Amino acid sequence: MPHDHHDHDHFHHDGMSPSGHPYRADNDTPLTYWQTMEIAVREILIEKGITTPEEIARQIDEMDARSPANGAAVVARAWVDPAFKTRLLDDASAASAEMGFDIGGLRLIAVENTDEVHNMIVCTLCSCYPRNLLGLPPDWYKTRAYRSRAVKEPRKVLEEFGVTIPDQVKIRVHDSTADMRYIVLPARPAGTGSMGEAELARLVTRDSMIGTGLPKTP
Amino acid sequence: MSDTPKDFDGRRWHDMGGQPAGPVKPAEHDFALWEKRVDALQVLMSSKGYFTVDGLRRALEDMGEDAYEKYSYYERWIAAVNQNLIEAGLYTLEELGAKMGEVKTRGGTYGDASA
């Protein structure tokens, strides 16, 4: 998986932010029109008492704290706890909330990879993503190429991600909406029988929960 | 509508599922502070009930295909958030224009202007 940068524990390493993306140059480039608009909108809302700087900072902190590690913890729990897995497949929002991950008003659906079916998720219309469990979506998830092709030639798209799915395995692509998001429950890798939950969670990559990757093997 | 092109299938530009497109380039980046603030404003203002995700999408889709190619994700988002907030009556275009003019006088970088 040449594209997959998450080959280290806990989804961070040198040059990567806690959300697992490389840092982007920030505040010292020339001010743009849209940045000017953001500052203006934010300050007007604050001046009118509609929000506060603290509330905005808290919201950013909450979003920053969401990373694929949250989703990985849910997946690992499902791998070791059959009753939890049943609850997850039945109602992923409630099962995630059980582990302390707030899904908000969204309906979250977990789809399970098996020997017969490989699932992948997309949002063809925009960029809907299980952000409460995985953080903000990667750039490629929002591109025309992924949105257009995932539903038409998923096998080919997966090959571009370095994932080859055997012909006899059916590929099921789930198109997300604003109110209904999907997360893939990847299959537990072989040879992990003796591993505990925390150790298993480290095998679960972000892309394995989007369906464009597979979990790492021990 | 006699001059509707023969290949027009009734879709709008954003409905791109199944359309031909090039290879998926595995681009990744973290988000700049101003982008995180746009995201936070979207979440906060919609959770306060000033607009819905559908309202955000409607504004994004109405910008058209050209904007999708030309502007970045959060550039389009701040435009859509702003439009929804003006429609919700929280402030006027005049107030926005005056504030943007004032912000620009503070300095040449985001860091200076948002201080």
List keywords for this structure.
heterodimer, A: 218 residues, Nitrile Hydratase, Chain A, two-stranded parallel sheet, two-stranded parallel ribbon, 10 helices, 39% helix, 11% strand, globular, disordered N terminus, B: 115 residues, 6 helices
Q: DSSP helix count of chain B?
A: 6
Main interface: chain pair and counts: A-B, 67 and 64 residues
- Which structural class is indicated by helix and strand composition of chain A? alpha/beta
- Strands in their spatial order, largest beta sheet of chain A: 1-4
**Helical run tally of chain A:** 10
CATH topology of the domain at 67-210 in chain A: Nitrile Hydratase, Chain A
CATH class of the domain at 67-210 in chain A: Alpha Beta
DSSP strand content of chain B: under 5%
Number of strands of chain B: 0
> What is the 3D form of chain A?
globular
Percentage of helical residues of chain A?
A: 25-40%
Unreliable stretches of chain A: 1-15
Sequence of secondary-structure elements of chain B: HHHHHH
| Contiguous runs where pLDDT drops below 50 for at least 5 residues of chain B | none
CA gyration radius of chain B, whole angstroms: 18 Å
Overall pLDDT level of chain A: 89
Shape category of chain B = globular
**Name of the CATH architecture of the domain at 67-210 in chain A:** Alpha-Beta Complex
| CATH-assigned homologous superfamily of the domain at 67-210 in chain A | Nitrile hydratase alpha /Thiocyanate hydrolase gamma
For the record, give the distance between the C-alpha atoms at the N and C termini of chain A, rounded to a whole number: 16 Å
Family (chain A): Belongs to the nitrile hydratase subunit alpha family.
Pfam families (chain A): NHase_alpha
Binding site for Fe(3+) (chain A): 123, 126-128
Protein name (chain A): nitrile hydratase
